[in-house]
Amino acid sequence: MDKFNQKLVLITGGSSGIGLALARKLVSRGADVFILARRLEHLTATSLELKKSRIHPAQRTGIVSADVSREKSTVRILEGFVNKVGVPDYIFNSAGIVFPGQVENIPLQEFHSQMETNFFGTVLVTKAFLPAMLARGNGHIVNISSFAGFYASYGYSAYSSTKFAVRGFSDVIRAELKPRGIKVSVVFPADVDTPQLSYERSMQNDIMKEINASAGMLPSDKVADSILKGVENGRYIITPGFEPTLAYILSITVGWALYPLMDSLIRSAVKKVQNKNK
Q: Which residues lie across from 91 on neighbouring strands?
């Protein structure tokens, strides 16, 4: 029997990108899938699509309209979810925002906004369901970090900081919750073909574009497949694709030696931009 069949799943950021790809995959595998996001119109359209993809009549799909950066309203909404729908077997914390740029050009408010959504949103949703999960004695929490969550990416001082924070949070709760029956996974995807990536790249300066020119891009479906395979296998660290897998291995084996490599890539990018502008 499929591990996800008839399991209750909540996915934040579930109306687009990785979250939507996960929702589609999980519905096709018989899970009861509820997606959480801010924009009601996107949620409604996605909900109709998911409902049509159900594989058995009793399968449930639904939406949760909430902004995970707003603590009080989201806690109230999630309490209602538990009372009405139940306690999720799987939580996928995929909600996230990004605002790239050199540090001096990123407004301070953007640091706050990204931290509130990417990090505190992950903490909020996790803590909202955790007491009931602990009482039940099982569950699986999957936190979507980023390639930028272990590799300090040029131009992403705000975003990368939030994703490093997600990694740290995941490391601690993995240790705390494993003895009590709750599994945790953290995911480090690189560039994924999503609307957010298109928006993000439109804001990159010339140096960032040069640095990222040779970077690959994975379809969201393949990333979702990799995540679900990792979750099925009980893996804590999930690195979809060759590039983030290799980079993660290097980050934990050579450590500080990555910094000269990073500096070399940046010098090369700066030189190319300068030559183009002559």
A: 10, 141
